[in-house]
Design brief:
It is a single chain. By secondary structure, the protein is an alpha+beta fold. The longest helix has 22 residues. The chain has one domain: Porin, CATH 2.40.160. A hairpin with a 2-residue loop joins strand 10 and strand 11. It contains 5 helices and 16 strands. The N terminus is likely disordered. It has a 16-stranded antiparallel barrel. The chain is 17% helix and 51% strand.
Length: 412
């Protein structure tokens, strides 16, 4: 474990606050965490949360669903405050690491309007603000089919939030701007530039409706894909085949326009708990667009809440492979073999992009045994098509996969 880095990251929120603190009573320290054990019924593939380098097979592991967060808030005065949050979990590397998820200054301009600047939550999902806080959610983990579609959690920039109550209904509008970067997996980095997003939320009693859209310029830096782009351009220029250069532009994942639109609805009424979210991702590259959604329902019996959810993800690889399978008469001898190899590579890329389809049926039970802690047991039946979001699937692997997990969520 990267102990020094973890301690430093968790200490950062305290350092941010103490740097401003003159009156320690204005400092509030809080935290959250999940201690979990996760396993599956197969050794032919690994189940993991989005953006994790390694997952779990039959042998139970703690790293998939466990995390620990620490937050510090300091009120400088009645209109200015500072917040910092550190999070420890397994992510883009197969080891526990720490990250600074929040580090911002907030100014209350009026009773309805506030401005934040620094490192903020990327406002892409219905539960973006508390997706890592297990105790705040009914399910043990957010459905991967939806929450894998934007793998970044934070943005460095600013946001503007306006909130006003109209009778029994509260309306919130949020505008966010900035940039973000993260490690998706070993050797694969993602960067979002010119991020701008809007979120509109209406709360009325037990009901919440949210609509959001985020746009950005996306760059995914991956060595194998970079090599393919360079090879396509080199062959296109050498053999004067424009289709090769066209395909290079399609599969290139640098500085591509992307958008993410989502709609969510939740309800907690008379012991009935329900939540649903639909999301649509569009990227102007071969990595393609996706449609995803989930629906969750449960009923509270005292301190026990059994629940069921269904989630679905469908990728849409819209590009057509225009690379020819042979060269014109008089072309160099190596030309036909080269274009055939590149044609097959593009077909493989298109197929693998569409192989990300997946659906999951989930049953679970939450027991609120304490005012600040719960115990959850969850079973997922994951149906990939053919590999879905599973990692390191063996040749010829076919699902479905059953995933089990037990977890204790807590806040303090």
């Amino acid at each position: 474990m990267k102990t020094r880095f973890i301690v430093a990251a968790l200490a950062l929120p305290l350092a941010v606050s103490s740097a401003y603190a003159q009156d320690t009573s204005a400092v509030r320290i809080s935290g959250f965490g999940t201690a979990a054990l996760t396993w599956t019924d197969t050794d032919q593939a690994e189940f993991a949360r989005p953006n994790q380098a390694r997952g779990v097979k039959k042998s139970p592991r703690t790293g998939v669903d466990s995390n620990l967060g620490l937050q510090a808030d300091y009120a400088i005065n009645d209109w200015l405050s500072v917040t910092g949050q550190g999070l420890v979990r397994k992510d883009g590397e197969d080891d526990y690491g720490a990250e600074l998820t929040w580090a911002f200054v907030k100014a209350k301009v009026s009773n309805d309007l506030s401005v934040r600047a620094g490192r903020l939550v990327l406002p892409t999902f219905m539960i973006s603000e508390y997706r890592n806080v297990g105790y705040a959610n009914t399910f043990l983990r957010p459905p991967s089919e939806v929450y894998s579609q934007v793998p970044l959690n934070s943005v460095d920039g600013a946001d503007l939030t306006w909130q006003h109550a109209y009778g029994d209904t509260t309306i919130t509008a949020q505008l966010a701007f900035g940039r973000a970067k993260t490690l998706l997996s070993s050797g694969v980095d993602a960067e979002l530039r010119r991020v701008h997003g809007i979120n509109l939320t209406a709360e009325h009693g037990p009901f919440t409706l949210r609509v959001g859209r985020t746009e950005a310029k996306l760059t995914v830096d991956q060595a194998s894909l970079n090599t393919l782009v360079a090879t396509l351009n080199t062959a296109g220029n050498a053999y004067k085949i424009s289709q090769l250069n066209d395909m290079a532009r399609v599969v290139d994942n640098h500085n591509k326009k992307g958008s993410f639109t989502s709609v969510g609805l939740s309800m907690d009424w008379n012991n009935i708990v329900a939540q649903t979210e639909y999301a649509k991702r569009k990227i102007d590259s071969a990595s393609g667009s996706t449609d995803s959604w989930y629906v969750l329902g449960g009923y509270r019996f005292g301190k026990f809440l059994p629940y069921y959810s269904h989630a679905d993800l469908k990728p849409k690889s819209d590009f057509a492979n225009t690379i020819p399978t042979s060269c014109a008469a008089g072309a160099p001898a190596a030309c036909t073999q080269t274009v055939r190899t590149l044609n097959a590579t593009l077909e493989g890329l298109r197929t693998s992009t569409n192989n990300g389809a997946q659906s999951t049926d989930t049953i679970g039970l939450r027991w609120d045994f304490s005012s600040s802690a719960d115990l959850k047991f969850q079973i997922d039946r994951v149906k990939p098509d053919p590999k879905g979001l599973l990692l390191r699937a063996a040749p010829g692997f076919k699902g479905p996969v059953t995933v089990g997990a037990v977890a204790v969520d807590f806040v303090f």
